[in-house]
Amino acid sequence: MRVVVVALGKIGLPLAVQFAGKGHHVVGADVDERVVRLVNEGTVPFPGEADLDVRLKEAVVAGSLSATTDTTAAVADADVVVVVVPLFVDAEGRPDFGWMDDATRAIAAGLRPGTLVSYETTLPVGTTRGRWAPMLQQGSGLSAGQDYDLVFSPERVLTGRVFADLRRYPKLVGGVTAASARRGVAFYESVLDFDDRPELPRPNGVWDMGSAEAAELAKLAETTYRDVNIGLANQFARFAGTVGVDVARVIEACNTQPYSHIHTPGIAVGGHCIPVYPRLYLWNDPAATVVRAAREANAAMPSYAVDLLAAAAGDLDGLDVLVLGAAYRGGVKETAFSGVFATVEALRRRGARAYVSDPMYTADELAALGLPAHQGQRVAAAVVQADHAEYRTLSAAQLPGVRVLVDGRRVTDPELWQGVHRVVIGG
User: Fold this and answer.
1) Cα Dmax for the chain
2) Residue 272: what pLDDT?
3) Cβ atoms 343, 267 nearer than 8 A
4) What is the pLDDT of residue 234?
5) Pairing label, strands 88-89, 95-96
6) What contacts 281, CB < 8 A, 6 or more positions away?
7) Listed residue (177, 111, 100, 117) closest to 139, CA to CA
8) DSSP label at residue 32
9) pLDDT confidence of residue 395
10) pLDDT at residue 93 above 80?
11) What does DSSP assign to residue 420?
């Protein structure tokens, strides 16, 4: 098959490589000329994705993968179009469809009868049928489910381990018609392999969800569950801290019972998914008070961590504080919705001088993100914001002058912080 993947980001490019590796001719379409150039050279345009460098080079050398900035021309020659363009939300949780609208119009201009179009970007329920189908028809004159097939099939992978996750998790497909769904299932069965998982209620593989709306809700629900679970864990942690109980031991004990799956509390919930998709769900269902309360609880955690610092260190006015970790999670060079921004802001509101360091970022890169880079300044306190592996061996000796450490991720070794007031969330 001739497959077009629209948007060669941290999900789209691995997908394109995966499809090419299964024997299909793949064209990646992206508006970024730099990304297109690097992909055509066989060079990964971003770091951190396991095996992507080798597999991309193999696909390009074999002639099974190329890239272009001309989405319309690529779609005009395609049997299948897979869309992985980012969707954003504003501060009030309203989705910003701008990039996806532009991509959909470009797809419509090249769309021809018989093509399968699959949206993988996480969407509010009803978007595939209610927004993309009319927009594709307006630009192409073709009707979804009659002239071409249209499905929603959410990506369910984490950056850094995309290829492993593609094998591990069932691929969900929902069509605007039953025929579209069958076509989507057949496509994904041809491009994916699946691990044997006998614990699942049915065999691992491609699962037809029955409708595009069911597939859309499934992705929102599974991610919103995580945010709500973490919000509950953070509530437990805050209470545990007031009564002298170690919440980590409590959660460990609770989770030995098969119906308890309490997540890990911490200083922040970041990334493209967990902080964003509950807001998309709330856009559909604004009366979901549990979802809203959890999102608010998690958003408040950076300020709570700074409160813990103030309780241990005293007045923060004029205090030099190092925030350890700009990334939203350990081992990933990505700051999307990272807690670092809210932590720095909370420190500044208290009058502290905040600095940031991260083993994955240079000082110039931090400055470009609007973060005050630490360049050897002596600091009196530190806050762990990301659970980078490097922090497991970090010691007080490496930060001379530090009197207080707030470990927002419980990643540091207390034995290496003797003589320093070390505080953990929920401890």
Assistant:
1) 72
2) 86
3) yes
4) 98
5) antiparallel
6) 124, 220, 221, 224, 288, 291
7) 111
8) -
9) 97
10) no
11) S
